[in-house]
Amino acid sequence: MHAVVSLPSDVSRETLRKSNWFLFSDQPLQDNTNVNIEIRTQQQFQVWNGFAGAVSELGAKALAAIPAAERDRFFVEVFSRGEGMGLDWIRLPVGASDFAVDEYSHSMTPDDFEMKAFSIERDQKWIIPFIKAAKAVNPRLRIHASPWSPPGWMKLSGAMDGVEKSEIRNEPAVLKAYARYLRRFVEAYAEQGLPIDRLMVQNEMDSPAPFPGCRWDVELFVRFHTDYLREEFARHSLTTEVWGGTFRTMSGLQGHQAFESADFRSFVKGAAFQYSFPRLLQDFQVQFPGTRLMHTETVCHNGDNSWTQAASQFDDVLSYLNANVDVFSYWNLVLDQEAKSGWGWLQNSMFTADAVGKRLRANPDADVFRLFSSNIQVGARRVQAFSYLAETLCFRNPDGSLALFLRNLEAARTANLTVDGKSQVLPLPERSLCAFRIP
Fold first, then answer.
1. With contact defined as beta carbons under 8 Å apart, do 85 and 370 qualify?
2. Which domains, ranges and CATH numbers included, belong to the chain?
3. Going by C-beta distance under 8 Å and a sequence separation of 6 or more, which residues neighbour residue 45?
4. Degrees, nearest 5: CA angle 365-367-368
5. pLDDT score, position 92
6. What is the helix (H) or strand (E) element at residue 102, kind and residue range?
7. What is residue 15's predicted lDDT score, i.e. its pLDDT?
8. CB atoms within 10 A of CB 280
9. CA Rg, the chain, in Å?
10. CB 431 within 8 A of CB 408
11. Which pLDDT does position 2 carry in this prediction?
């Protein structure tokens, strides 16, 4: 049985949008003219752990190709808390991502179940020097990591990339070997003085892809964590936190389904999301109260590095932080002037390392993330902030200051701000992304 109400032809997405009640000023006390912001500092939410940016093999290679002075400027601009945006995390692919030069893993010998030939030697060329240079600027730098694919020989297809038969082989020997592989990766990086703070088993576990990827059935994904990875990490006394993910909601609710397992929840330290609708993250927290959340990858866009795309990133940061994530992660921190992946498509980056012009160039996304990261301190706690006309975000920093964010796409105007009953007026310049530090 079902019921349908037919609509006339003049009903469309656009006409519905125009008829929404909040566009009209005929509701009692509704003010569609003035921006009014209310902050209540006693209503507190997640503690902030910092912003992240990803290092890819192509990005680290591109940076290595420009003059040393420009490379040094990059690390200061990105990782210095005093002189730059002060990012506190690096996102690290385990083996090849789509922005590797080509397909590779740290276990290239087929059927090496004991990981006798395991090696991170390839990362020694570009990626590890990149992270060490970043850590020299910001010694408190932390790392969260995830594979795009297990080693190709562990998959049904025999290859890391490719849509067909992209699943891992559901065999005890292979699953044990993969847990061993991840443990060896964590240990190998620790030996380099680069401890892995958070590990996710799979980037986008729902998605077979032409680039390195692996689609996991949710039941197998949960079982790998509880029956294989937990035992492997415990036996070797690893302190790296394992987080569930990375999940998306664009293709379904795999994360919600995985967390239905109490055994899975008891092992992982939180849930990692990207390409997700914040409303579903809020539902997730209602369903699994107390679960920590993090964000693992921004929208990649198409290499245009436009200001419109940067402004949309601003909106995404507000949405995810208001949905209680404690880390927000940009994708490629730097690419070369072509901005092309190893599999042929273009994506955005915060910076361009132009080997032809022998210089570093900042793209609009860098300004957006500098605005956030230079104003929200690690250890800050989000507090309640609301505006009827503009989405807002507010954190109370450890130094006691408030960091308030909103955008104004209209002409220059002012905002009326009330903090715990005390009022002041803030200037909103024309077409601007705004951050205010309030003592």
1. yes
2. 29-44+383-438 (2.60.40.1180), 49-375 (3.20.20.80)
3. 324, 381, 382, 383, 384
4. 65
5. 98
6. none
7. 87
8. 16
9. 23
10. yes
11. 86
Query: What does the DSSP 8-state code read for residue 228?
Result: I
**295-310 residues labelled b (16+ CB within 10 A) or e (exposed):** bbbbebbebebeeebb
Tokens matching residue 303: 């290499």
Q: At 410, is the secondary structure helix, strand, or coil?
A: coil
Contact by Cβ (8 Å): 410, 432: no
d(CA 430, CA 208): 44
**Short-list 409, 418, 426, CA closest to 315:** 409
Q: Where are the alpha helices (DSSP H) in 32-106?
A: 57-64, 68-79
166 in helix, strand or coil? Answer: coil
- The mean pLDDT values, 10 residues at a time, for the chain of 439 residues are 90 84 69 86 98 98 97 97 94 97 97 98 98 97 98 97 96 98 98 98 94 97 98 98 95 95 98 94 96 97 96 97 98 96 95 95 97 97 93 96 96 95 95 96
What residue ranges in 312-358 does DSSP mark as E strands? 327-332, 334-336, 351-354
Q: How much is the pTM?
A: 0.95
Contact residues for 279 (Cβ-Cβ < 8 A; gap 6+): none
Residue 246: asked if its preceding bond is cis (omega within 30°), the reply is: yes
Q: CA geometry: angle at 291 spanning 261 and 286, to 5°?
A: 85
SS3 content of the chain, % helix, strand, coil (to 5): 30, 25, 45
User: What is the greatest pairwise CA distance in the chain?
Assistant: 73
Cα–Cα dist 235/229, whole Å: 10
